């Protein structure tokens, strides 16, 4: 295993009965001949953005441990945190997880790692995330997200997007490609997609606007608003909630047809 350019800073503060430990580690990996970045992470936010001039994948990891004294927190980080950035053929793999088996003291200890990732141009992303918000902006490449919980924000993604989400809001703007969403719960807001949009949603309101292809929706509950679609709109199932469809250039097909 080889990790490139690892640096860290440590910040420590305490207040009354609660202790909080924070450490920042930075990792980098040359991006030449790498066409996909796979991210496997646990709790904490994830932010990914693009630097077209970058020659490396760069990661800044903010490690947070609450309600443990600094000496114990350092021990836990060194023993139980997996934080690696490795090359595997034409893929880069970023892993970030805390082992939770040590939390048995009854202190309700909270651990998380907030990741900020910068990638060069033309790189696919494959993300498996546990909990925490996800923000991805200005990416050129296909994007796949499997997410447990937390809000998802996507903006300016030039490629196809596939999302499997447990819970949390989803906000998407400006996708050049097709968009597929399988969602458990949470509000969905989609605007400006050049290709087809397919949404299978269990609950939560849905707003879909300015779509260049077809729109297909299978919904359990929650209101649906669809506006300005260049091709067809198909509502495979509308469980409960209001339905508003406007300015569709193709056909409107509902489950009553």
Structural features, described:
- The chain contains one helix and 23 strands.
- It has one helix at 70-80; strands spanning 4-15, 18-30, 36-43, 46-50, 56-66, 81-88, 91-98, 110-119, 124-131, 134-140, 143-149, 152-158, 161-167, 170-175, 179-185, 188-193, 197-203, 206-211, 215-221, 224-229, 233-238, 243-248, 252-253.
- Strand 1 and strand 2 form a beta hairpin.
- It is globular, with a radius of gyration of 21 Å.
Write down the domain tally. 2
Output the structural class: mainly beta
Head-to-tail CA distance between termini: 58 Å
User: Helices and strands, in N-to-C order?
Assistant: EEEEEHEEEEEEEEEEEEEEEEEE
User: If you average the pLDDT, what whole number results?
Assistant: 88
Overall strand count: 23
Spatial strand order of the main sheet: 1-2-5-8-4-10-12-14-16-18-20-22
Quaternary state of this entry equals single chain
Number of helices: 1
Largest sheet, described in full? 12 strands, mixed
| Relative strand content | over 45%
Categorize the overall geometry.
globular
Radius of gyration: 21 Å
Roughly what percent helix? under 10%
Uncertain runs are: 1-18, 101-106
């Amino acid at each position: 295993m080889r990790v490139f350019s690892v640096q860290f800073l440590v910040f420590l503060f305490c207040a009354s009965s609660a202790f909080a430990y924070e450490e920042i580690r930075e990792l980098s990996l040359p991006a030449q001949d790498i066409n996909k970045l796979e991210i496997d992470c646990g709790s904490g936010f994830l932010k990914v953005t693009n630097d077209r001039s970058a020659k490396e994948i760069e990661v800044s990891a903010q490690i947070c441990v609450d309600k443990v004294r600094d000496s114990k927190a350092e021990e836990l980080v060194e023993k139980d945190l997996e934080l690696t950035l490795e090359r595997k053929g034409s893929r880069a793999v970023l892993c970030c997880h805390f082992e939770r088996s040590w939390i048995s003291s009854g202190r309700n200890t909270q651990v998380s790692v907030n990741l900020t990732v910068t990638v060069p141009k033309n790189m696919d992303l494959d993300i498996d995330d546990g909990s925490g918000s996800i923000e991805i902006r200005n990416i050129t490449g296909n994007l796949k997200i499997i997410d447990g919980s937390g809000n998802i924000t996507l903006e300016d993604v030039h490629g196809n997007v596939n999302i499997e989400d447990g819970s949390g809001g989803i906000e998407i703007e400006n996708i050049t490609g097709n968009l597929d969403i399988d969602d458990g719960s949470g509000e969905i807001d989609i605007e400006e997609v050049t290709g087809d949009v397919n949404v299978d949603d269990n609950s939560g309101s849905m707003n879909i606007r300015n779509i260049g292809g077809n729109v297909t929706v299978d919904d359990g509950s929650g209101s649906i608003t669809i506006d300005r679609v260049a091709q067809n709109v198909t509502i495979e199932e509308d469980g409960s909630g209001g339905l508003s469809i406007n300015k569709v250039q193709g056909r409107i097909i509902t489950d009553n047809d």
